[in-house]
Amino acid sequence: MLLKADRLELNLQSPKEVVAWVDSLPPEVRVEISSLWLERLNRAIEPDPWLCMFRIRLIKEKSEVGSCGFKGPPDESGVVEIAYGIDEQYRNRGFATESANALKEYALSLPEVRMVRANTKSENVASERTLEKCGFKLVGQFDDPEDGLVNRWETDS
What band does 64 get if pLDDT is binned at 50, 70 and 90? Predict the structure, then answer.
């Protein structure tokens, strides 16, 4: 599966590719990854856009600049959550905005999705600006079971 943005391609990875990526992360980053998500990933056989990550690649240069994806399938209310990360040397160039917007547009094009959500830590001002540019609205603070106290952002358009 391939999603496109102005300057980017989002390429869906296989479960094996995502596991290899997780294994390559430094221990201090790996501990931040949901154990529930890892369990589901290790059981997966086929690429699944609700489970597997998308590698973010510059179309012209073919350079990988980060990854993004959904934190799971739509819940019973039709809500999905997105997550994204841009490698440090590629930040502040609008790639997070393009990636988040591509995920949002894909999700909202599906009949089972009625809202897209993203959570940010209060100190992550750059990510909050990204979400504002993509049309997300801050709906409040929530205690997320995996991430702790977060600012919750949502959009349905």
Answer: very high
CA–CA dist 65, 74 (Å, integer): 27
Q: What angle do CA 116, 87, 135 make, to 5 degrees?
A: 25
Cα dist from 145 to 11, 119, 150, whole Å = 29, 12, 10
Token pair 């980017």: residue: 8
Domains of the chain in start order, with CATH, are: 2-118 (3.40.630.30)
Cα 136 from chain centroid?
14
State the pLDDT at residue 133. 96
Task: Please name every residue paired with 69 in a beta bridge, in sequence order, or none if there are none.
Answer: 83
